Structure formats: C-alpha cells, structure tokens
Amino acid sequence: MNLGSDNLAGASPKIMAALLKAAEGTQSPYGQDDFTKAAAAALNEAFEAKAEIFFVATGTAANALALAQITRPWSAIFCHETAHINEAEAGAPEGLSGGAKIVGVSGAAGKIDPEALVAATARFRKGWQPHVQPAALSLSQVSECGTLYQRDEIRTLTGFAHAHGLKVHMDGARFANGLVALGCTPAEMSWKAGVDVLCLGATKDGALACEAIMFFDPALAHEFTWRIKRAGHVLSKGRLLGAQMLAWLDQDHWLDLARHANAMAALLKAGLGSHDGVEFPWPVEANEIFVWLHRALAERLRQANVTYAAWPPLGTPFGARSPAEGTFARFVTSFATTPDMVKYIVTAAKAP
Amino acid sequence: MNLGSDNLAGASPKIMAALLKAAEGTQSPYGQDDFTKAAAAALNEAFEAKAEIFFVATGTAANALALAQITRPWSAIFCHETAHINEAEAGAPEGLSGGAKIVGVSGAAGKIDPEALVAATARFRKGWQPHVQPAALSLSQVSECGTLYQRDEIRTLTGFAHAHGLKVHMDGARFANGLVALGCTPAEMSWKAGVDVLCLGATKDGALACEAIMFFDPALAHEFTWRIKRAGHVLSKGRLLGAQMLAWLDQDHWLDLARHANAMAALLKAGLGSHDGVEFPWPVEANEIFVWLHRALAERLRQANVTYAAWPPLGTPFGARSPAEGTFARFVTSFATTPDMVKYIVTAAKAP
Amino acid sequence: MNLGSDNLAGASPKIMAALLKAAEGTQSPYGQDDFTKAAAAALNEAFEAKAEIFFVATGTAANALALAQITRPWSAIFCHETAHINEAEAGAPEGLSGGAKIVGVSGAAGKIDPEALVAATARFRKGWQPHVQPAALSLSQVSECGTLYQRDEIRTLTGFAHAHGLKVHMDGARFANGLVALGCTPAEMSWKAGVDVLCLGATKDGALACEAIMFFDPALAHEFTWRIKRAGHVLSKGRLLGAQMLAWLDQDHWLDLARHANAMAALLKAGLGSHDGVEFPWPVEANEIFVWLHRALAERLRQANVTYAAWPPLGTPFGARSPAEGTFARFVTSFATTPDMVKYIVTAAKAP
Amino acid sequence: MNLGSDNLAGASPKIMAALLKAAEGTQSPYGQDDFTKAAAAALNEAFEAKAEIFFVATGTAANALALAQITRPWSAIFCHETAHINEAEAGAPEGLSGGAKIVGVSGAAGKIDPEALVAATARFRKGWQPHVQPAALSLSQVSECGTLYQRDEIRTLTGFAHAHGLKVHMDGARFANGLVALGCTPAEMSWKAGVDVLCLGATKDGALACEAIMFFDPALAHEFTWRIKRAGHVLSKGRLLGAQMLAWLDQDHWLDLARHANAMAALLKAGLGSHDGVEFPWPVEANEIFVWLHRALAERLRQANVTYAAWPPLGTPFGARSPAEGTFARFVTSFATTPDMVKYIVTAAKAP
Hints:
- The structure is a homotetramer.
- By secondary structure, chain A is α/β, with parallel strands linked by helices.
- The first copy, chain A, folds into two domains: 13-251, Aspartate Aminotransferase, domain 2; 254-349, Aspartate Aminotransferase, domain 1 (Alpha-Beta Complex), CATH 3.90.1150.10.
- Chain A has 14 helices and eleven strands.
- Chain A has helices at residues 13-22, 34-46, 59-69, 84-87, 92-97, 114-122, 151-163, 175-182, 186-189, 224-230, 239-249, 253-273, 295-303, 339-349, and strands spanning 52-56, 75-80, 101-105, 133-140, 167-172, 197-201, 211-215, 278-279, 288-294, 309-310, 326-332.
- In chain A, helix 2 (34-46) packs parallel to helix 11.
- The longest helix of chain A has 21 residues, at 253-273.
- The first copy, chain A, is globular and about 60 Å long.
- Chains in contact: A-B, A-C, A-D, B-C, B-D, C-D.
C-alpha cells in the first residue's frame, strides 16, 4: 500500500467511461474537437469567468508555459522556496521562459510570508539594467506543505503583486482539494482573489492526464497558441484532454473526488495522531499529511508494507534529529483511498 | 464524412479497453509504472533492439526533443523541404533545440534527393565559425507526400549522413503504415537501415496519444530524462502512454491497424482513379492519397458532405492551374475507415 | 596584399585619436558616459530622427538582438537567401531570438524579388497554429552581392511588409557605402523608406568595433536594455563605442571614408575590367567587386601575392564551370585601400 | 571625484598606445590576427598553461558563455549568493545557458562557506529527474565583498566540487588585484588550485574592454567557437582585444596596475579608518573598500563632491540601522586613482 502521492492512483471510473466513449467517432484535431470546446465552456461556467483556456497533459507544462507567457526572459518570478516550480520541475519554467529567474521566498508552512515577499522583490531595482525585473508571483494552492492560503491571505499577496506590476500565477495542482476545504467558489479562490492565470490540475484529483491553463484576462493569452504548439503540447487528438475535463466537472464530480480525498486525509491524520511517536509540523488542511514518525512506528509500517514518501525536513525541527530517531514522511490521500486502507495503516502503526 | 487526416479518428477499441483496465490500481508515477516498462521491453523485442526508449504524448514533442538531443544549438538539421518538422510544428525543433537551423532539401514526391542532400550539406563548411554545422538528417517515413523510401534509399541517405558525421532521425508518425507497405521488419526499416533515433507514432495508427522515442544507441540518450522533464513532457501517470503502447504492439495490432488503413487507401485510390477529372501526382504507397480533383467532381463531393484537406500544390504541376479548374486534395485513411465509407466517397464522386 | 574583406583594415587615424583621448578621465559605466550620449544625439541629428539608440561591438550582435526584439520565438523572418543573417552568423538570430525561423527569399544579384517575397510569406498561414508567423523583413543594404536597393525598391518591399504586419530590419553593415552611392540622406535610405530598425555598421567603414542599433519608433525598444545586457553586450566602459561613433560621424568622416572605399572599388573594377579573362556577374555599386577570374589571371595574382576571398558562385553562371577554368572572387575595398594598391593589383593581373 | 567602481576609469596609456599601433595595417579578422594569437600565447606563458583561450569584450559575456559551456540547460550552478553572476548580470548566465539554475550559497564576507556548499548541493538529488543537476561551482576572486579566498580555501572548495562532479569556474573580474594581494603565481591561483575555466578580466584593471576565457583543459572548449559566435561575441577586428591583452601582460603591466590600485585602497582604508564614524564590515584585501559612513561624515563627502556607490547592506549589521544614521558605501580604487585623490577624500571626510 503506497500513499506517497496522489498520482499513484489511476483515474476515476466516471472519467474513464467518458474517455472510452469520446474515443469513438470523428473529431477535429488539435483541440478543435467538441469535447475540448465544451470543456472550456464548462470551466468558464464553473468559474463564472470568460477566460481563455488551454489544456495540456502535464502540470509541469501548464506551470512553465503559463509563467513563460506572463514574463520575459529577464524577469524574476517569486514563489515560496519550496514551490514545485522551484524545486521539482527540473528547471522547466527557466527552460520554457527563455531563462527567467525563479526567486524563492520564505514563509512558514509552505506559504509565502508577505513581508518576505516585499523584501524579496525590493532586492531587484525596477528599471535597473543589471537586475532581472520582477514580473510574476506564483502561489501554490494547496501549498507544498499541504496547507492552504485563506482567501484574505491570497488577496493580501495578490494585492501587493498587482500594486508592484507583477502578474499572479496560481499552481493549482490540488486546487480542488483546497477549494472544498475552504468552502468557497472557484471564482473566489482564483480571479476574484486576484489570480491572473490559474493552472488547474485534474490529474491528481482523479483524471489520467489533464491540466487546464486559464487566463482570466484573455489579453494575457495573446499568441499563447504558438507557445504551446512549439513546446509540443498540442495534442493531435485533443479529445483526450477535453473529455476528461468534461467528465471531471460534470455534476461536481471534481469536488466529490476532492472531498473524499480530504476526508481520508483527516481520518488518517486523526488515526495516526492518536498514537505515540508521531508529530505533525503543519496543519492537515487538504489531502496531504506531513508527519514525523518515530523509528519504531516507521518500522511497524514497513513490516506492514505501507509506503509513503520520505520527505526532506526543510522548515521543520526534525532536520536536527538523527535519522536513527525516525523519519519525516508525506502521505497523500486520493479519490482512490478507502476508509479500509486508512484503517489498515492506522492499525499497522499502532504499538502492540 | 471527413478524411482530411488520420488524426480525426479516435482510438481502437482494443487500445481503449487496455487503457480502461490500466486506469485501475496503484502504479509508480513519472514513467516508472509497470505498463511503461513492459511497453519499452515489447518495443525492443519488436525492433530486435536494445534501445533507450521514452514515451511522450505528441509527435511534435517526440521529433523536437529527439532532434534537440542529437544536435547543438549551432547545428544544421537536414530534411525534405516539405517535412513536418520544417513546415508544420510552429518551429518546435528550433525552439526546443535552442535555435538549431532546419535546412529544407529538395527531392521528388516528398523524398530527399541524395544529390540535393550532398549539395545542401556542402554549403556549410565544416569547422568554419560563421557556419552552422551539419549535425542531423531527418527522414520522414511515410513522407509528407504519402510516399515511401525503399530500404536501399534509406541506406543510401543514412550512409552519406554517417560518413559526414550526421546522426539520423526518422519521423515515423506513420511508421507502421510504411512498414506493412514495405513488408520488412521494424529493424530493417530503422536501425538496420542506419536510423539512430526513431520517433514512432502510435497516435495516427489507432492510439489516442502515444509516441515513442527510440535511441538505438543508448549512449545517445545521455541525460535525455532531464530534457523531456524540463520540457514538461513527463506524464505524472505514465501508464496512460505505456498501456496504449502495450496494447498497440500486442499480437501485431499495430500492423493490423496499419494494413487496414493502407488497404482502404488503395481502395479509395482505385475508386477515384476510375473517374474522369482526377490526377494523382505521386504514387499512393501507404494511407495517404494526394489527388487533384476537377471542379465538378469536387462539387459533387461537397454536396455529399465529403471533406478532405485542401493542400498546397507545391511540387506538383497543379499550382499553375486556376483555382476555378479544381482543387488539390489530401485524403488520409485510418484504422477507422470502412469499405462502406470508401464506397460512399467513390460513388459520390462519380459523374452522373 | 589582401582585399578579401573590408574588415581586414584597421581603424581610421581620426577615430583612433578620438579613442585615445576618450580613454582618459572618469566616465559613467555601461553606456551612461558622455561620449555615448553625444553619439546617440549625433546619430539622431544625422538621421533627422528621434530614435532609441544602442551601441554594441559586433554586427552579429546588432542584427541578432534587433531581430529578436521585433519578433517572437514563433516568428518567421524573411531575408535574401544569401543574407549574412542567414548564412554567416552561425545561427545567432535563431539563438538570440529563442528559435525564430529565418526564411531565405530568392532574387537576382542579392536583392529580394518582391514577387518571391509575396510567395514566401504566403506559405505561412496567418493565425494558423502549425505555422510560424511572419513577423519581420530583413534587408541588407549593401547586399551580399555588393549591389544596392534603390530607394523605390526599398519602399516597395517595406510597403508590402508593413501592409502584412511585418516589421522591417535593415542590416547596414555597409550602410555608409550604400548611402554615398545612392546620394541620398541617411533618413531617406532608412526610416523615410520604411525601415523600422537599422543596424548601422561603423566597423567596416573605418571604426575598430562599433555598431549602432537604431529603433526609429522608440516604442519598439521597450525593455531592449535588458535584452542586450543579458546577452553580454553592454560594455563596462561604454566610451569605447561612443567615442568611435562620435568621431566617425564628425564632419561627415563616415561618408568620406565610404566614398573613398567606393572610389577604389570603381577603380579596381575598371582596371580588372580592361583585362581579358574576367567576368562580373553583378554591377559594382559600392565597395565590393565580385568577379570571375580566368585561371591564368588568378595565377598571376597569386604570384603577386594578391589575396581575395574565394566565393561560392551561387546565383551565378560560374558554378557550372570547372574549378580548373578559373575562380570566383570577392574583392572589398576599404577606407585604407590606396590607388597604388589598386594599380598594383591591376598591373599584376595584366597578361604579359 | 567618483570612486564608485573601477570601471569609471579609462585605460592605461600603455594599453592605448598599443591599441593605436595595432589599428594600423592589415590583419585577419575574427580573432585570427597576429595580436590575438600572440596574446593567447602570452597568457599561456604567464599561466604556465596550455589553455584554449578566447577573448570577448565584456565580463558578463565571459562569465555567461563559460558557464554555459560547462553546464547543460538542466544544470545547477552554485555561487555565493552575492555573486555578480547571480545578482548583477540581468540573468545572462540563465539566458545563454538555455535556462540553467543559479543557486546562491551563503558564507561570510562574500566567500562561500564550504559547509553551506555541501548542504546546497545535497538538496539536489543526483540522477533524480525532477531535480536540476549540480554541474558547476563558480568562485569570484576577488569576491563581491572585496575579500579574497586564500589558496587553501580555493582548493577546499574545488576539491569538493570535483569529487562531486562539478566543474569549477572562476569569475576573475579582479583576478589581478587578488593575485598581487596573495602574492602567488597566476597558475597557483587558478588551475593549480582546481579552477577549470577562468574568466580573466583586464577591463577593470586598466584595459578598455578585454576579457579572456581560459579553458585549462582544452577538451572543455569543444565547439566553444560556435557558442561565442552565435552569441555575437566574435569581434570582426579581433585585434582590438588581442592588442589590449598583449600590452596588459607585457612586462607585468597588469600586476603593476593592480598593485597600484590595491595600494590606493589600503591608503584610503587607513585614512578613513582614522576617522570617527566609519565601520568596515569586512577586511580590505584588494582594491575594494566597503564601509559604513556616519551621516555627518557622508555629508562632508557629499559637499566635497566625493562620490561612491551606495551599497545594499546585505550580510552586514548595518541593514538594521536607520538610513538617517548613515550610509553603507563601496569605494573602488583603480590604476588611475592617485595618492592625491585619496588624500583629498580622507581630508574631506575628516571632522572639522
């Protein structure tokens, strides 16, 4: 049993059934198919928006291409120092933007500290030739620590960004998980909170491979069609993406899947939390649980074949402990996690 | 009825059934899943090879990344002037290679003329600083004119290439169609004929989105894993690609699909060829039919709702004719084309 | 004696004297020095313009950076097929533009044929995703064949360009030679004729290393300051460039140098033309002489230690001749060429 | 009087005299001239090396091109967080390398702390696809804080680097100032200490514009000739660079110039240090003086028209002070600084 990530799961049966049906018959290629068009319309309806929308197969592509679109090669992009775009995309944003500079900003629990952002942007003098120029702020909702920005926290950061000429990107790989946790509307957690371009991930929330790039101001999407084409990100049979997105949105399927994943995370957190030898550095607010496991407990999980992601303890007090004392772990629940699985893990972890 | 391209069709039921099944259960992410590993092994078996193999979702990505891998930014890449990499990928090879130069080479019926290749490469002086340096030859099998290089033709070109220090790339978007037409083994049409890296397309031959990049010399794949990652081309749930490829190869499904498409093309060619008012500039050797349609015949097809791709008549005598006389058209048959569809078209085209 | 290029000469004494003086004392760095500011003002006065002006040390940098500025990575740039940016800059425009596509256009004697330009641009469908998008026209004045566009020829091409949304770049590596030959004002051969950005070369006309990039519409220069900085083209002690340019422009020194070079070319052409065994494919209109030399004559020059550039006979009838018959040669005169040198060559070439 | 940087000075008379002479007569272009060849030989002699050597006109170009050469686009480059390549080149290394990632490492007084380097490199897992891959270490000698790495400090860092597969780059914009301060040979401060590629700056030490890139292992320079050409960094009249370098090296002129600059710095430091209201955060080891100036003293300098660079007080205790209390300043002496100038500043700074 492996709960190291939510991308270890497959896809929801509803989405796969839709895909199976979409694979029949003739459709226009390159994203001009009926499914893609309907998916874009459905997204705009769900977000109460008139966004320009593009679909790609990976979150790395979505983030890197969106960031490239709102910056120039001599731009600085500000994000939390643990952000996926900074740490886990092998330099894709740098590569696809022509060499823009990612600047990591500090902040507790994976969330950018507004004062640190002010300080970070102040280091680059506007209009000064030797300095790269601040151009974008990237927020991860859910953050890499599994935490959430509250809506007013988002607005504080985007307000500062816009006042200083930065466009705002949101890495929404787990947007749905955050959304159901906050209990607000998609619009309220994105454009109404000051997000200019959202990378909305369906993949981790039950799709097989589908990410939407939503430019809430269509002017920002100028010539984006060539940017994605020349990066090789326009699918020949675009229905693959459109059909997944349509089924994902249909009758709030995306929210149901996310709610389930979050509920399983809460259950697992509660279960593990009842044991000795566990410590949680950050609140569990969506579907990710970061937890320090005492050696004995970790050993019991190993013997029960429970797998998780060993995680670098950056920003936690656990980095100072000896590896012999225990392990810092990430568990991520998904649409496919069952109460029985959670029960199995919690039971296995329990001291005899 | 639209036969403008073979990417208008969906996916074969066998492949979709496999995908449905693959979407269940837990798998490692980022191409480390069982399906992807098995697909790579199956490809190597089919090709009698020990290639390093990577899977991506689009042909544009496959071609551009493979070419980037075997060149430097100051390289020249030689291909037929009509090649997809030169004409229809919005500059993706230039973009992902850091600005390498694509040099179009002439030749009848979409195939590079060996003498023209010699002349084209000779224009760039080896070792001379102001000149980009010849580094790669790209062959399209099937060509953009629907024609085939015979095996000895491939060997002639690759022999020249290797003797002059060029690596050889094959754009095999319709490799299977070419293969069954030539009646040789996959190895004979690729590495045994001098191909260093093959982009093998399953998408146009019945898959939904799956392309393999095969480096027959594993040393050529050095650090390629980062090249594709930072281009955003590593799928989170890699099983999407692996499962398609496995099903495509299983029990020669790929060859059956291609044989069917080719047979439908032959049927359509024969049918149209029996009418007045049609002219074929090039032989029909795989699943593409290029044909000049007299105005009256084109009008009958239009009234019967038969759609095809209007094609630029470059390299044909038809460019000199007035648009009022007729239309230059491309029909492409696919795994999903039926004899009834062909019959319908042929009948519709017939003069009353 | 080597007349293979005008960059074999050093620099004019007047320019060097100015440089010597400029090397004294304190000046602001990075192009904020008094010399650079004065040079920009002097250029604007000479061109009756209000251009945004930048100075760099090489023509390759000037061309590539200017073209990058008026294009996007998915752009097509049209130039004569023999143009320096296409043939002799090792792919610099592709590299610094992020991979834009250079499209060679045919035309007699190194000059773009307007109909060929129309046909070349028409191959790329506007707004169509698979096609790179036409964005710039690049004219070389003087052309690579040593010929000149007349002012109405420039206007015809730039008129077409602007009507089709292309910006116009002029590679003016030998602008001064062309200017004195046409006998018009700098403005008339540039912005009044429809040129949007001019790369004005002083290096080949008596400077040591100095090229100006002039954006006649300042809006085109938006953020160009970072483009050149991050390409490493902002000199720490910018006075090196500013002082050369100031001296070059002072009291029409640039025109005097160019007139002299042109006069020497005319003299050499006349002298060689009086011999048997020479053929000129193109008129000699500035300071370059392209000439086919019969073997015997070439041998006499060799024995007299006269060196020239052996030139590829593309676009001439000489390519069909055996190398044993003779040589296709380029002579370029410069500010430093003397009548005695010309006399020596002409005499040496003469049959005994 | 402005001592904000050593690039405010012009060029040494000896170098200018050599340049004047070099501007006469015919020379091969593009770095094939006699001066450039002799300069390369002289450099190799001075460094007891057989390096492959290239000359460019700016330090930004030298650093960015050298780093691009020893990395791939998916590489991480480690340098001190204050390094010029990280802070003051507008992203040139990112741009010319295709998007490599610059990772700032901490350390007191502008020098990389070995333990911090170990920690920084450890964050990137070798062979792991989502991580950029450590490839280069860049050392600035003199550092951005005006301090020096002792030879054993260099060897400690380069030893770690080589053991972990990193190539070592040295930004030697003020190499000569460091060299005379350490009192060792050029070889001892470069390749014998583990430096693989040195960017040796002459510009700040009395030249007008000349930087050498020295690959001590010629294999590292493979195809570098095209890298610099396509970046626009090959001068048409290469003698401009070669002649400066030759004169700079001749009879230890470079060392004399650097010794003078360092001596002036020591004089200025001693003078200012005798006043109240000054604090030096770091030792003055070469030709740069960083000093906190009390408001009153700063005001006296302002009234005496003494200019320096206001500097961000990063890594010092001065950042915590109110701007009303005083100013953090950088003074840089050069070959052109005279004892009288120093005396004038010291006197002006003195309390009445």
